[in-house]
Fold this sequence. Notes:
Low-confidence stretches: none
Mean pLDDT: 91
Shape: rod-shaped
Radius of gyration: 30 Å
Structural class: mainly alpha
Number of helices: 5
Order of helices and strands: HHHHH
Distance between the termini: 67 Å
Number of domains: 1
Amino acid sequence: MLLMVVLPIAILALVVMVMLYIWKKNENDRRRFEMLQNTAKETISSRLVAYERLTIFLERINPDSMVVRISSNGLNSYEYHSLLLRTIREEFEHNVSQQIYVSPEAWTAVKEAKDSIVKLISESISTLPPQMPAFELIKEIVETYTNTNKPALQKALDVINAEVKTLFA
């Protein structure tokens, strides 16, 4: 008789425990999914900001826009050379934290673009005699850039654009 009373209660208790376990697991899974959704939204937003900032960086170190933006008044070519390199270094340092939001390929492309612009500026100054006016350096940089250096900068922009498109595909 006792078995007839205890057995159904034990079975009922076991069923309730299994149901509570399943409910708790489902609730935890739902919360985890909601958290991942919120994190994904924040991550995409942060990544977009990073891609925007790196695009602006690349446009700002583009020699065509950089020499227009950075005044050369009263400077000789060596002083202007130092100013350009310092500007690139500061811009890069300001954006270095963006690498955590972009792919290694995008970050490598950005660094290669920066390095190619630095190399172009350094090679341009080596062709000029000391104390030459800054406008001669500007002319040399723009001519060289127009003829040879766009691929690294354009490649970096292309990599960034391709990655941004994958965020919305």
